[in-house]
Structure formats: C-alpha cells, structure tokens
Design brief:
2 domains, elongated
C-alpha cells in the first residue's frame, strides 16, 4: 500500500534520506526513482519539481559532484579530509649537498621555483604555488597552477588556458605523479609531471612513453633548492578539459585561495 500524497517538505525529507543512504553520491534519475518508490498517490511532476527545488536551494548541504550526480556535503567533506591527510603526508627526502653535508628537502621546496620557471619560459602568463589539499575534492590539488592568457599588446586574442603541475621530490614515485597529472587534465589544458633527474632509467623510459602517449608534459630537476635546473623531457599536448570540472575546480579555488584566483583570472 502506497503512502498518502506527499507535500514538498515530505519530498525533500525523502530525498535527503536517499542521499544519506548513498555516501558515494547518486544520479538524478536514481534519486527520483527512489523518492517515487511507494509514493503512487503523488504525481510524478510534483516529485520531480520537489527534488529540483531541493537541489537548487540547498546547495550548501548538497553538492553536484559530477554531471547529474549529487552527494551530501558532509560526505564530500569527509572525502576531502581523507585526501588532505594523504596529501599532507609529504615525504622528506635526505639529499647530500656538494659539501657532503646532509640536508633535507620536500616537494614543497620546489613549488615556487617551478611556478617561476613556467612564467620565465612562457609556459604560463601567471603561475602560483598551490599544493597541499587546499582545493579539497577527490581529484586532489595541483602543486602549481598557472594560466596562459593574452596580454594587452597581443594582436590575436585567445581563450585562457589552465596549466597544472604535479611535483615529486622522491625518485620512486613516478606512477603516483603520472596518475595525478592525468587526473588534472580533467580541468587543465596542459599538465606537467616534475620529477628528480635521479629517477631510475627504467622508470624514466616508461614515464617518457606514457607522457608521450597521453600528452602529459615531463620535466626533470635536480634536488637542489637553490638551483633546481628544470629540463624539458616531453612537452605537453594541449587538451580540451571538461568545462564542468573546470568550473568546479575554480569554485573551490575561489573559496580557498581567492587572491590566487584573482591573479590568474
């Protein structure tokens, strides 16, 4: 036996319960079907309109995590916290200096210098260190983000292009770096992997092949904060990012690093 005709508040409550039962998120059509289940006395259009109203007015509680897929904000925050814990676990690499004195470096030591390298080599009009987990989200945060955009004196004007980079100071993490750099192509036109030149030749050869196939840029550097000596191994290929993820990333950047967003765009 079906439940009595639902009013808008009851439709909202049923939808929230469905969302709570799907911590990984649920597609719009499945959410609609679940709310309609057993509510035969409530017109389809009433439930459809009620759910649409909920999703457009409760944006602080419900997040559109992908096209047509919604998730409770509390679950999104839990996933972001988990990602932040992983990203915050930066590996400290002991490195011998020229004076044989042991010093330590982390990948964060190279964020600013690589941002400068992008600007100096015209790979970005503006670039800024980011790193950590400031953007949150399950796809992580690029270590460096930049933008290529026309200058006032440029005759031909073009649409801005987003540039991202993943830097690893540990030579045995090429696969991790590659996976993250590929993920960044969801919202960037060019993506780079930046790894130590001490990476084994076998790993380097595999990475060069993967980067060439997938259009990811590959840069090597020396584990020396003062003179990292960035060298291009593979140039990135321009990609067409998914505009949904571009806007999603920029919204997160606006919330966490508004000054960086203003500088870039």
């Amino acid at each position: 036996m079906g439940v009595p005709r639902l009013n808008r508040q009851q439709i909202h409550e049923r939808a929230i319960q469905v969302l709570k039962a799907h911590p990984k998120g649920i597609r719009w059509s499945d959410l609609l079907r679940a709310v309609e289940n057993g509510a035969d006395d409530t017109p389809h259009n009433s439930i459809h309109g009620g759910i649409h109203n909920l999703l457009t007015t409760r944006t602080s509680d419900i997040v559109k995590v992908a096209r047509g897929t919604y998730q409770l904000a509390e679950y999104v925050e839990q996933e972001s916290a988990s990602s932040a814990a992983l990203d915050a676990d930066a590996v400290i690499t002991p490195v011998k200096s020229e004076t044989a004195e042991t010093v330590t470096v982390t990948e964060q030591d190279f964020y600013a210098s690589f941002a400068e390298w992008l600007e100096e080599n015209d790979e970005a009009t503006f670039a800024a260190p980011l790193g950590g987990a400031s953007l949150g989200g399950k796809w992580g945060t690029p270590d460096v983000i930049g933008v290529i955009k026309p200058r006032a004196q440029d005759i031909f004007k073009f649409e801005p292009q987003i540039v991202t980079a993943e830097i690893k100071a540990v030579a045995n993490q090429p696969v991790v770096a590659f996976g993250q750099a590929v993920a960044y192509r969801l919202f960037s036109h060019k993506s780079y992997i930046v790894i130590p030149n001490s990476t084994s030749s076998d790993d380097m050869n595999r990475l060069k092949s993967l980067c060439s196939i997938h259009g990811v840029g590959l840069i090597t550097f020396t584990l020396n904060k003062a003179q990292p000596d960035y060298v291009v191994v593979v140039l990135p290929v321009n990609a067409s990012p998914d505009m949904f993820y571009v806007n999603s990333m920029l919204e997160r950047l606006k919330a966490s690093e508004p000054k960086t967003l203003n500088r870039l765009f």
